[in-house]
Amino acid sequence: MNALNVTDLSIDFPTARGVVHALTDLSFSVARGRRLGIIGESGSGKTTTALAVMRMLASPGFVSGGSIRLADLNVLALPEEEMRRARLRRVSYIPQGAMNSLNPVMRVKDQLKDAIVTHEGRTEREVLRTRIEDAFAGVGLPEHVGSLYPHELSGGMKQRVCIALGVILNPELIIADEPTSALDVVTQRQVMQTLKDVQQGIGAALILIGHDMGLMAQSVDELVVLKDGILVEHGDMRRVIVNPRHPYTRELVASVPLVGGESFLGNSSVVPDVARPREGLPLLEFENVHKDYGGITALHPMSFSLCGDEPRIISIVGQSGSGKSTMGSIMLGFNPPSKGRVLFEGQDVAGMSPLQLWDFRKNVQAVFQDPYACFNPFYRVDHALSFPFRRFGYATSDAQVQDSMHEACRAVGLDPALILRRYPHELSGGQRQRLIVARALMLNPKLLIADEPVSMVDASLRATILKNIYDLKDRHGISIFYITHDLATAYHVSDFVMVLYKGQVVEAGPPKEVIGDPQHPYTQLLIASIPWPDPDRDWGGTTTAAEDIAALDASDRDALTVFRGDVPGFRLDVGA
Amino acid sequence: MTGHRAGEIKGWRLRRFESPWVNPKLFWGAGLLLAIVALGIIGRAFWNLDLAFTGAAPLKLPPVGFENLRGQEGAWIHPIGTDGSGRDMLALIVIGAPNSLFVGLLASLIGMSLGIFLGFSAGFIGGRTDDVIRVVSDVMITIPPLLILVVVQSAWGDVSLTMMALLIAGFVWQSPTRLIRAQVLSMKQSGYVQMARLSGASTMHIMFREMLPNLVPYLFGSFIANVTTSIVTAVGLEVLGLGPQRIPTLGRTIYEAINAGALIQNLWWWWGIPTLLLGLMFIGLLLVNLGLDEVSNPRLRKL
Fold first, then answer.
1. Residue A301, helix vs strand vs coil
2. Which of A362, A372, A422 is nearest residue B200 as measured by Cβ atoms?
């Protein structure tokens, strides 16, 4: 018997500008013990489907047709009180960003207790205790975690608490809505394995919502592909990934960058337009830079120098908290190092005169992670492009500023007529991030710091934006520091890779060596944690993620950096 | 882009949705306040203001159409009556109402300017500056302004309107300071401020061109709330007889009415009309504040 049957489901959102069809005639079913993935980009109706099953659609959205049956239960005809009782008990929902859905003023074990008592009435204290302990054990959390508050837990632990909460009443169906989108790859693998284990343990059906084809390939049996609220492909996961029938599915599969294999950058044999004049001093230099916050070391002493004669892309990879973003902000001069010096063309960034600082800003630009925050909501998007252009003295006339903006937009594949003169909230995240790249292009700096430039953008657009960034080096001769947690893209884009682990460079060298054939256990763990969009390639083999992490912690922490070779124009020294 | 065109074609209801500034609450509130200002301007042009000073008119004359306890009928020469010393009520109102509004606006304007300056300094510079400003404003917020002002003004004797506004301004800068400091602190970390720093923007540019425009709705709301507080404080002082002694204000008129026993003599127009005007002023300010709330917080807007 199927745990969930959805037949011809349609959902409409009436708005001031007419009715939006969020979902049109969607049908699928999941059996108990099976895992179904729903994949599509943002706005494709994935979350709307999940909310409809929970009957938690936000107004003004409503179900305009079709039926949802939860085993024998007709969800759409249920009175509100019965629906309330069915939630969590028969169908549980692990929301997007579940980290924020725990009550911050309650101990996590009390939140589990609440769930049991609300649905099953008064329960004996002993029974409650053992059940909660079992639930924590089931998601691999030690017992003492129960008496902590949410802010005392890491993101991965909070996510596992949410899973424990979702399964504690043994529901027939678990809906997990991008449960790992806020986690780094290592934690993602651990959380997904926990979720799969628990789901198999209680024999529930699982619906996994996501946008990452790789994650789907590692996690589900069956796949539904949604585009603009319409089901474009449905079938066995293996079949859909190996032999996609719909062009959109093919695009989704192809958009996942792989380590090795064909580069998504295409043929890159173009000669740079701009030849950088040779300068005596290196472009950017770290001299024994060290950073700590209070007593915690964010970055261990390191020195490097980037020559800048020839453009290079240096990737800095690591999971969250590894110190890679700290490095980025030190390079930009936003965050002074605790010890050591940062030199730009021989000049200490910390002690610059206003004129030198102006020159530094003119030549060192950045692309940040969050394209939504980078535009001042008060101004049209033009402001972000034209203001620095004028400020750095490139502008000669208004017409020339306009021309440059149009040219830069076209260079990153945006239609200036549709993009310019609009307010930031009218553009999508992908469009905004491309505009930020266009801004960097207009300013033509010598160095660009790209801090996770694509992590908040839909998977299908990532390759395009990375291509835009790569073009900055390739065609415009800009050196780039690419800060990322995504090893696959770093593999293709960069000339040199540094792997950071707890503020220390553990492995460094050309990408073919470091990522293609990792030597340090941490790099190996990172590579093993990448979800491959290949059903035959197992996600980490027999050792579970937890064991890998434990092994890494046990390994010698003071182990020296593994150097895997050099590239001309970049030199790295680690240690004081 | 098609959305804009569609919006233009559709009717008034939709346009109201698209431009939050077209808001009935804002409209009526601003209308009330402007009416009081207009009363002052038109009154000055068409009414003899010398009547606001002790004159030859009969005392305690009621408004037209009413009779006082002595059986005197209201006369058109004093359409809303006279007070206990024969001053014309209309002239008192024409001078007094804009005066009360003026004190409120001036005090609030000075308070806001101080608040913007201190809030930006605290949020932007941080460190010791922030500590000092924060502690001082937190301490000041706990002191009841009326208490201090009563002491100061009774020691001072007579004050001018501007002087009173300045004194009140010393007690309305704390909440805008705190509000702006908090906003500046969170905005300082935002992506667009970082982008502006990358663009080589000066501190002044970041403060006034990048941050301030986004603060405008908060500033407006805070300003209006401050005007209300300032008027309440001013009227409170005046009713206690501590305001300006020679300039008619609504509060002073009420003070004199109470002092002369207007309540037991049933001279309702003497205290009632200034009270009514103050009431209208507060309703106007409240409506403007509610309207601004809806402008700055789209969730309160109705479709």
1. strand
2. A362
Residue scoring higher pLDDT (A427 or B104): B104
**pLDDT tens profile A225-244:** 998 889 999 999 989 988 99
Q: Which residues of A touch B189 (CB under 8 A)?
A: none
Contact A25, A10 (CB under 8 A): yes
Contacts of B191 in chain A (CB under 8 A): 368, 370, 372-375
With bands split at pLDDT 50, 70 and 90, how would you rate the model's confidence at B31?
very high
Q: Give the pTM.
A: 0.78
Q: Which residue has the tokens 């009415």?
A: B257
8 A C-beta contact, residue B166 and residue B110: yes
Residue of A17, A366, A378 with shortest CB distance to B198: A366
Q: Looking at the structure, do residues A293 and A412 belong to the same domain, yes or no?
A: yes
Q: How far apart are CA A236 and CA A439, in angstroms?
A: 43
Report the percent of chain B where pLDDT is more than 90.
27
Instruction: Provide the angle, in degrees to the nearest 10, between the axes of the packed helices A125-138 and A185-202.
Output: 130
Predicted ipTM beyond 0.90: no
**Pair A179, A163: CB distance under 8 Å:** yes
Mean pLDDT on B75-83: 82
Distance CA A411, CA A428 (A): 18
Give one DSSP letter per residue of A424-466, joined into a string.
GGGS-HHHHHHHHHHHHHHH--SEEEEESTTTTS-HHHHHHHH
Please, how many CA atoms are within 13 Å of residue A189, restricted to the half-sphere of its CB? 23
Residue B9: how many CB atoms within 10 A of its CB?
7
Q: Which of A17, A361, A378 sits opposite B198 (nearest CB)?
A: A361
Q: Is residue A531 part of a domain?
A: no
Token pair of A349 as six digits: 């960034």
Non-local (6+) Cβ contacts of A128 within 8 A are A113, A116, A117
Evaluate if residue A544 carries a pLDDT over 80. no
Structural domains in chain B plus CATH codes: 29-39+95-300 (1.10.3720.10)
* Chain-chain contact of B191 with A372 (C-beta, under 8 angstroms): yes
Q: Which helix (H) or strand (E) holds B217?
A: helix B212-239
Bridge partner residues of A26 (DSSP)? A9
Q: Kindly list the residues from chain B whose CB atom is less than 8 angstroms away from the CB atom of residue A332.
A: 198
Query: What number of H helices and E strands is found in chain A?
Result: 20, 22
What pLDDT, in 10s, does the model give residues B85-122?
Answer: 888 888 888 888 888 899 999 999 999 999 999 999 99
Q: How many independent structural domains does chain A possess? A: 2
From residue B139, give the alpha-carbon distance in Å to each of B117, B135, B143, B171, B174: 18, 6, 7, 11, 9
Q: Are residues A482 and A370 in the same domain?
A: yes
Which CA distances in Å does B72 have to A337, B57, B75, B84, B267?
87, 13, 9, 14, 12
What does residue A236 show for φ and ψ, rounded to 5 degrees? -60, 140
Where helices occur in A106-212 by DSSP H, the ranges are: 108-120, 125-138, 155-167, 185-202
The DSSP letter of residue B190 is: S
Per-residue confidence (pLDDT) for residue A263, from 0 to 100: 67
User: pLDDT band at residue B135, thresholds of 50, 70 and 90?
Assistant: very high
Tell me phi and psi for residue B52, to 5 degrees: -75, -10
B136 CA: distance to closest CA in chain A (Å):
28
Portion 310-349 of A in contact with B at CB < 8 A: 332, 334
- Tokens 């042009």 appear where? B45
Give the CATH number for residue A11.
3.40.50.300
Same domain, A66 and A108: yes
Average pLDDT score over chain A: 85
Q: What are phi and psi of A262, to 5 degrees?
A: -80, 140
Q: Would you say B126 and B67 are in contact if contact means Cβ atoms under 8 Å apart? A: no
